[in-house]
Amino acid sequence: MIYLDHAATTPVPRPVADAMYQVLTEQFGNPSSQYPLGREAKALVEEGRAVVAGALGCRPENLHFTSCGTESDNWAISAAVWQGRHTGRHIITTAVEHSAVLEPCKLLQQQGYEVTYLAPDKTGHVTAEQVAQALREDTVLVSMMLVNNETGCIFPVQEVARLLREKNSRALLHCDAVQGFLKVPCDPVGWGVDLMSLSAHKIGGPKGAGALYTAPALRNLRPLLPGGGQEGGLRSGTEATAQIAGFARAVVLRQENLAEKLRHMADIKAYCRERLLSIPGVVPVGQGEAPHILAVSLVGYPSANIVTDLGAKGICISAGSACHRGKASHVVSALHLDKKTAAGVIRVSFGPETTRADIDGLYQALLDHKNQRFPML
Ligand code: PLP
């Protein structure tokens, strides 16, 4: 198998699975229990929190574990609009956020909120200037992702944070950093971001684990799940100890020689780009800078067919976001490509494990697809 879909999810390295297995079978106590097995589980959760918080550069008490990036995004948005309920009902986000941000925004629109969706340019980027133009007195939330999951474009989150400060805006800044964490510079504390979402399974951790950073200045945060009082009373529910241990172990592993891993991914991406663009009819899509995501189009060849065809040969890539399952991607639509280019968009994404031989396999399979199939008219 050639796995080139690391933006969808990543393989769990053995040490991460081992750490989880040990928690599941031996250190399985409930962190709320008052005997040693419970206290050991509680210590594991707090060690995990310290590790993930350390990697993000924040204090452990400002990091709350959740079940996934989607949950973190939903929580951030609902907490932010609650926080700003006396300020107004205007939200700014981008047209190319993940559905985990766009769908809660749509629900808020049904409740009377006004949402401005910033459109990307042809390269896939949005600017802080666009935020400045859209900002109003009654803006309560700006939600901007760090790295777009389909184009790999890096968004100017640091600049937007500075802009909000300069304008004395009361809007909170949320950043979905699910695709950015441990891939590109990410510093919520230094930048002055209020809320930041993470997910474990994009960096070699298990599915079912995420985190939300909340700035120390955010007081009386609205709890996501009222209940038994876990996660500082903000997100009740017995802690997913194995997932948290796996998340933390994945962070530790990923951080080992991180610069080298990122250089490797960037090299692989450059190699992949060069090889795929050498196929007549393949064009670049957007100009994403993140080291792990490359979008191209095999113009006129429907991407769903490419993905199925390559999948049958054991090559895993994605037609835009894996979350859209065949539906036309809103990110591709927002780039205003011509119909045939839009139809053929595929996303190839890399991890530290990806080799040049994987790329050669993809190249050959794409070439074969092109030679064996007919383009749309
Ligand atoms: N945000 C972005 C940018 C993503 O790419 C994803 C997953 O693909 C998510 C949020 C959702 O994360 P999770 O799968 O952990 O819910």
Description:
With 377 residues, the protein is α/β, with parallel strands linked by helices. The protein has 13 helices and twelve strands. The chain has helices spanning 14-25, 36-56, 69-83, 99-110, 128-134, 157-166, 188-191, 241-255, 258-277, 303-312, 330-334, 339-343, 356-372; strands at 2-3, 63-66, 90-94, 114-118, 139-143, 172-176, 195-199, 210-214, 282-284, 293-298, 315-316, 345-349. The strands form three sheets. A seven-stranded mixed β-sheet has the order 2-8-7-6-5-3-4, sandwiched between helices. The longest helix has 21 residues, at 36-56. It is globular, with a radius of gyration of 21 Å. The chain starts with a strand and ends in a 5-residue tail after the last helix. Pyridoxal-5'-phosphate is lined by residues 68-70, 73, 98, 100, 145, 149, 176, 178-179, 199, 201, 210, 323. The site of pyridoxal-5'-phosphate has 15 residues, from helix 3.
